[in-house]
């Protein structure tokens, strides 16, 4: 665990507004999250949970307000310090499990851990040469989770991360999230189901 991993971080949103397709999804949204902390973003379908993750990841531009990271790596942008895991697993079907992971490691760059160890941690070490097209939904999700471990980024933005995971997979993922937080990481997860770890709730758009 490096000293950098332990540096305090604080992510703050102030008066954030989101417009999609010309329609306001939410506005005036305030939130904050600190290193070592998990935030569960909850709300009804269409409230803007995915949109908020995409705003933080820099994949959408806020229509108003600011999103600021204090205490992160001053040489990197906020999106460069985030892992965004969408609810659709971004995998190349013709590439094998290990080739998919290598693709993401090359694409994202930066510090990386041992890919074989990551695949073992998510229970895919028996399937490294299998084309991603042959993976089950839960196995695809596990491969996406291996990305979080292979390429080290301190902020995990997770969209419905436990979808398709069996009970053992949810336990495994709970352990990985706890380790990430213990290292000074941050997790912001859009979810309809309990995340499986202690988290603070950020509700968007009133009761679901
Ligand atoms: N590409 C797009 N163009 C226009 N509108 C969009 C686009 N993507 C999403 N929206 C709209 O933005 C709103 C928020 O969508 P978002 O996916 O962020 O909601 P959500 O809270 O994650 O919903 P769910 O619980 O169903 O996953 C919805 O009304 C949706 O129709």
UniProtKB/TrEMBL annotation:
Domain ABC transporter intervals: 11-208
InterPro entries recorded: AAA+_ATPase (IPR003593), ABC_transporter-like_ATP-bd (IPR003439), ABC_transporter-like_CS (IPR017871), ABC_transptr_haem_export_CcmA (IPR005895), P-loop_NTPase (IPR027417)
Keywords of this entry: ATP-binding, Cytochrome c-type biogenesis, Membrane, Nucleotide-binding, Translocase, Transport
Keyword Transcription: no
GO molecular function: ATP binding; ATP hydrolysis activity; transmembrane transporter activity
Entry's Gene Ontology BP terms: cytochrome complex assembly
SUPFAM superfamilies: P-loop containing nucleoside triphosphate hydrolases
PANTHER family for the chain: ABC TRANSPORTER I FAMILY MEMBER 1 (PTHR43499:SF1)
Purpose of the protein: Involved in beta-(1-->2)glucan export. Transmembrane domains (TMD) form a pore in the inner membrane and the ATP-binding domain (NBD) is responsible for energy generation.
Family from the record: Belongs to the ABC transporter superfamily.
NCBIfam families (UniProt xref): ccmA
Protein name per its UniProtKB record: Heme exporter protein A
Organism from which the protein derives: Bradyrhizobium huanghuaihaiense
